[in-house]
Amino acid sequence: MFSFPRIIKLSESTRTEPLRVCSAPATLPQSGKKTSWVTITRVGSFTDPRYGRFEITAPMLLSMVKNFEDGVVGQDVFLDVNHNPGDGSAAKILKLSVEGNRLLGLVEWTDFGLKAVKERGFTYLSAEYHDNWQDNEAGLFHGATLLGAGLTVRPVIKRLDPVTLSCEADGSTLFCRNWPTI
Length: 182
What we know:
Oligomer: single chain
Distance between the termini: 57 Å
Low-confidence stretches: 1-6, 9-31, 168-182
Order of helices and strands: EEEEEHEEEHEEE
Strand content: 35-45%
C-alpha cells in the first residue's frame, strides 16, 4: 500500500519539572540585535481532524536538530506569519536545541515578525515538519525534519511557551529550574 508522507503544521508543550524562561515579552536587547530563543514544538501525542492521531517524540526532536545542523533541507529555515510564507519571513532560524521535551530555536527577527508579535498578537509558534523528509535531489530519507514554523494565535499543540522577543545580546536566554515562586 502506498502512503503519502505527512507534513504537519503544529505547536505546544508539557513538562514534569518547572521551567521558567526569564525574559520580558515584546522587548529587544539594547545591542540592536534582533534575536531570541522561542519554543517551536514539544513532545506529546496529539490529534487533529486534518492529521488524525500523531506523536512528536524526543528522538524526533533530536533528528530535527541534527538535520538542521547538517543542512539537509538545502536552504535556510524560516518562521512566517499564520503559515503564509508568501507574505514574507517573520524570522530566520539560526540554531535549534532540545531543552527537556521542547524544541527551541534561536531566531533572528525581521521587522515584519516583530510587528506580528508586538502589534498583531501572534503569540505562539506552529511547527511545520515532515516525519521522514526526503530530499528531491538524491532521494534520501532523513527522518524528522523541521521545514519552518508559523506564528499563530491558535496552535494545534497547546501548552506552549508564548513567543518573547527578549534575550541576551549573545543570543542566549536564561532557563531557571526549580526556583522558588515569589
